[in-house]
């Protein structure tokens, strides 16, 4: 759960010497944060000239969207072999590409236009003259989900109430769809986006270490850092009843267990710590234990568990 995407993109005109091949510019989802700013998305034009002749000075491609001029891609004079690209940001709408400038020798030059998703949408012809407006298409900028983390995250374990309480401040993203709550990496609840508090009843949990995590949910998978609370839960010993007789109580040196065949015997002190664990026995020697109150848990071969308080008084 894990790193925050940012969404800043500046309009830049790049003149790089590259080998131009369509599959070199396939859209990569991992780079989508570099392609959008608010409702804008980019158009790329890749150009080349092979034999030293091509476009002349002050030649370029004007890009308009719904009649509004969004920039001109100025093509440099082609001297020798040239390969390069230029980029401009535009909004959604009807895009028209218009040619401006002097006559050019199309035989030795060409260009390709790629949309925001890296799809080739136009290739310059090599068999006729390009007019003033030579290409148009309906542009739709993809919506980029703004993944933001929760803040002010806090967790607390209230042992007296058998509760783990989690609280946080909601991220300022309109794309948030809710929260997933995990306990030891297991999803235990899903909450609506307006929720900023969660409480878990720990009464039925086993004693041990627990990790609670709150993960904001978005329409796409987001790489965000985890916000987690770790605690040790001690809920005491659960009470079970069965046809098991444990005597004497109070005990002096030996505790006897009468009933079904015993599989395992555990003894806990008054703070829930395991201090004795024996298997396949009906007699427990407690002469080494100090005086006090203990919990004895007896499990039979059938899986039945009986637990009772035992007082040791030597």
Write the layout of secondary structure elements.
Blueprint: E1 36-37, E2 40-49, E3 59-65, E4 68-75, E5 82-91, E6 93-100, E7 109-114, E8 120-123, E9 133-139, E10 151-158, E11 163-169, E12 178-183, E13 186-191, E14 197-201, E15 208-217, E16 227-233, E17 245-247, E18 254-258, E19 262-268, E20 274-279, E21 283-285, E22 292-300, E23 305-312
Antiparallel strand pairs: 1-2, 2-5, 2-7, 3-4, 3-6, 6-9, 7-8, 10-11, 11-14, 12-13, 12-15, 15-16, 17-18, 18-21, 19-20, 19-22, 22-23
Helix content: under 10%
> Main beta sheet, described?
5 strands, antiparallel
CA-CA gap between termini:
55 Å
Total tally of structural domains: 3
Series of H and E elements: EEEEEEEEEEEEEEEEEEEEEEE
How does the helix and strand content classify structurally?
Answer: mainly beta
Name of the CATH architecture of the largest domain: Sandwich
Mean pLDDT: 76
Here the CATH topology of the largest domain equals Lipoxygenase-1
Tally of alpha and pi helices: 0
CATH class category name of the largest domain: Mainly Beta
Give the total of beta strands.
23
Radius of gyration: 36 Å
Shape: rod-shaped
Spans of at least 5 consecutive residues with low confidence? 1-37, 237-241
- Beta content comes to over 45%
